[in-house]
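Need tokens for this chain, all 194 residues.
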Amino acid sequence: MIKIGLTGSIGMGKTETAKIFNSLKIPVYDADASVHKIYESGNIGALAIKDIFPEAISADGSVDREILGSIVVGNKTNIKKLEEIIHPLLKEDRIDFFKKNINEEIVVLDIPLLLETNGESQVDYVVVVSTSENIQKQRVLKRSNMTEDKFEKILLSQMPNDIKCQKADFIIDTSISIDDAKKQVLNILKKIRA
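Here are the structure tokens for all 194 residues:
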């Protein structure tokens, strides 16, 4: 099984790129979706977060991502506490994903903080999704509940894009179109299969 680590900073087009891999019948592990699952009411992650950040728990027992974000973004100590809960749970989830897809030739691990967490050692290839700073900013500021200040804080918590690109085996430029990104994905798969 060839493991491709797919990553990229906020607003770079990683989610759309993951959809392209998925449309080509390549199983994609979505770390964000796994986090959502962990945060659901009654799940082990939500219960553990309740112990350290009780104010981040909604009335229904699930994690309020907005409130949790305001507690951890830009606060190294709190981020570390959160990661100590989340990372082992995500690791278990990934092991399940590998078991389910044991007979697949290629799988994609869509992990936003792949390089920040030294996850490149767990994959065979690193694919970084990138675009210009202008396009990135436009995309992110269109999101609901996003402010320039919040965007800046998120950027500070992520590895700079140029450094991510230096660590990549392949870079997908999403500044042109989805069709263009798909051509790049097909090209990468061709090279990996060769």
